[in-house]
Amino acid sequence: MAVSEQPTRQTWQDLLYEKLFHNYIWQSIFRSGYPNTPRNQMLVVATNVFLHLHPTRIHRTHVKITHTYCLGGLTFFMFLGLTVTGAMLMFYYVPSVNRAYTDIQTLQTSVQFGQLMRNMHRWMAHAMVLLVFMHMMRVFYTGAYKPPREFNWVVGVVLLVLTLLLSFTGYLLPWDQLAYWAITVGTNMVGSAPIFGPKVRFMLIGGFSVDQAGLIRFYTLHVIGLPLLAAVFMAVHFWRIRRDGGLARPL
Amino acid sequence: MATAVQAARPAGAAARPRREREEEVLVWPDLLFPEFIAAVVFTMTFLVLSTAANAPLLEMANSNLTPNPSKAPWYFLNLQELLLHMNPALAGVIVPTVAILLLMAVPYFDGDHEGQGVWFGTPNAVKIMAFSAIYSTVATVALILYDSLKFDQVWQMITGHHMPAWAQGLAGIQHGIQWPSWSLNIPYLPFNLHLMDSDFRTLDFPYFLSQILIPIGTMAILPLVLIWICRRWDPTRRGAMVAFFTGFMASWVVLTVIGTAFRGEGLQLLPVWDVWNIMA
Ligand code: HEM
C-alpha cells in the first residue's frame, strides 16, 4: 500500500482530514476517502456513477489535449447544457400556435434570466452541431474508426444525424417567421422524395402545411423523443469506447 | 501532474505487461482536471456570448407572407444549395441518404490498422488532405458558377456573344437545345405504375439528362478522379479514404457557405462585394 496513507505523525491537518473524510456519513456517500492518494483516486473514479464512464487509468498520449481536443466530451457537455437550459424554457413555453410566439416574447421581456436561458440554449445548439462535425473529423484523421471500433463510428454517425434532427425540430418552436419558413423549406425537401416523400412529409407535420399538428409533433420529438434516443445512443457510444479498449492507439 | 500508477499496484499483480502500465496515468487528476477546466471555460464562454448576443426572434409566423429568400437552418443550406442545381428528390433526399450511408461504411472499406490512433498517421496524409480540400473547393465553386450562368456572363463581356446553350448551364442543356419532341415524352413502362403519389410512365429526357444524369455523373466521377490522382501519394485504402472524406467535408463546407452567405433575394448568387455589404 502507498506509504502516504500511513502518516508517521498526526498533525492538525491530518486530524481535520480524518474527521472530514473518514467519518461515517462521508463514507456512506462516497465509499472512498478524499482522492489524494493513488488508491483513493482510482476508487473514486471506479465507484462514482458519474465518473465511472471513465477508466481508472488511461494511456498518457490520450490525455494530451491535442489528441482529442476534448471534442467528443465538449459535444456531450453541450448536450447536458442544452438539457438544463431546455428544461428551464419548458416552464414558460406552451406549444400552441396561439401562444408559442408570445410565450417566447414574454420569456425574453418578463422572466428573470429568461432571455439569457434562451440565448444559451440557442448558441449551445449551434455549437453542438459544429462540435459534432469537428469531433467526427478528429476521429477520422486520427484513424480511430478502424477495427474494433467500426461499429462505434456507425453509432457516431447516428448521433450526428440525431444532433441535426434535434436542432431542426427545435428551430420551429419559437413560431416566428424564421422558424416557420425554415421548417416549411426543410420539410418540402423531404416531400420531394419519390414514392414515400409526400407521405413522410404528411406524417412529419401532421398535415399538408406546417400548423398546430406540426408544432406539437416537433415539440414532442424535440423535448422527449430525440433526446431519449440520443441519450441511448450516447450510452452505447461511451460503453463501446470502454469495451473497445479505450481510445485508439497505434499497434 | 502525472502520478505514477505503480505505487498503487500490489506487488506481483501485473495483469498486463509492465511496460504498458508504465505508459498509463491516473484518470483523476490527469483526465478529470482538463475535462473540468474545459467545462468551466465553455460555460463561461456561453454565458458571455449569451449576454452579448440575443437569439433572433422575428415577426410571428405568417403562412401568407413568404420571406424572400426563405432558407432552411444553416446546416441544411448545403442541401438547399444542391436543390438549385438538380432534381429535388436527388438533392433533398437521395444525396444526403447516400452520403450518410457512405460515411457509415468508411470503416468497412478501410479495415486495416494503418495510421490508427495518431494524427495523419499514413504516408502523405497531410498532402492528400490539402490537395483534396483544394480540388474539391475549386470543383464545387466552379460547378456552382457554371450552373449560375457566370461563365457565360464573363464570356459575353469578353467576346460579346453568348456561349452555346449546352455550355451555359444545366438549364441551357434542358431548354436551350432543340430537342426532338418525342424525346420529351418517352414511354418506358407499358402500363401506368402509380406508386402512392408518384407516377412512372414517361420520361422527359432533357430533364432527366440535365437534372439527374449529369449531376449523378458529376458527383460520381469527380471523387473517383480525385482518388485516382491521390493514388500516387498513397495507394492504400486509407489514402483513398483520406482523399474521399476530405473532399466530402470540403464540398459540404463550400455548399453551406455559399447557401448561407452568397444567396440573396430569389436565391440569386451574390457577388462577394454584396456579401460584405449585407454583413456590414
Ligand atoms: C452527440 C454526438 C457525439 C458525442 C457526444 C460523442 C462523444 C464521444 C466522446 C466523449 C469520445 C471520447 C474521445 C473524444 O472525446 O474524442 C468519443 C470517441 C469516439 N467517437 Fe464520438 N461522439 C459523438 C459523435 C460521434 C460521431 C459523429 C462520430 C463519427 C462519425 C463518432 C465516432 C467516435 C469514435 C470512433 C470514437 C473513438 C475514438 C478513439 O478511439 O480515439 N462520434 N465520442
Identify the notable features of this structure and list them briefly.
heterodimer; A: 251 residues; mainly alpha; Cytochrome Bc1 Complex, Chain C; globular; B: 280 residues; two-stranded antiparallel ribbon; two-stranded antiparallel sheet; 12 helices; 5 strands; binds protoporphyrin IX containing FE
Topology:
The complex is a heterodimer of chains A (251) and B (280).
Chain A: H1 12-21, H2 24-30, H3 38-47, E1 57-59, H4 65-68, H5 71-90, H6 100-110, H7 114-141, H8 150-172, H9 177-191, H10 197-205, H11 212-243
Helix pairs in contact in A: 5-7, 6-7, 7-8, 8-9, 8-11, 9-10
Chain B: H1 18-22, E1 24-26, H2 27-30, H3 32-52, H4 77-83, H5 88-109, H6 125-147, H7 150-159, H8 165-168, H9 170-175, E2 186-187, E3 193-195, E4 198-200, E5 202-203, H10 205-230, H11 237-261, H12 272-279
Antiparallel strand pairs in B: 2-5, 3-4
By secondary-structure content and strand pairing, the structural class of chain A works out as: mainly alpha
Biggest sheet strand order of chain B reads 2-5
Segments of chain B where pLDDT lies below 50 for 5+ residues? 1-8
DSSP strand content of chain B: under 5%
* Total beta strand runs of chain B: 5
SS element count, helices of chain A: 11
**Measured distance between first and last alpha carbons of chain A:** 33 Å
Oligomeric state of the chains in view: heterodimer
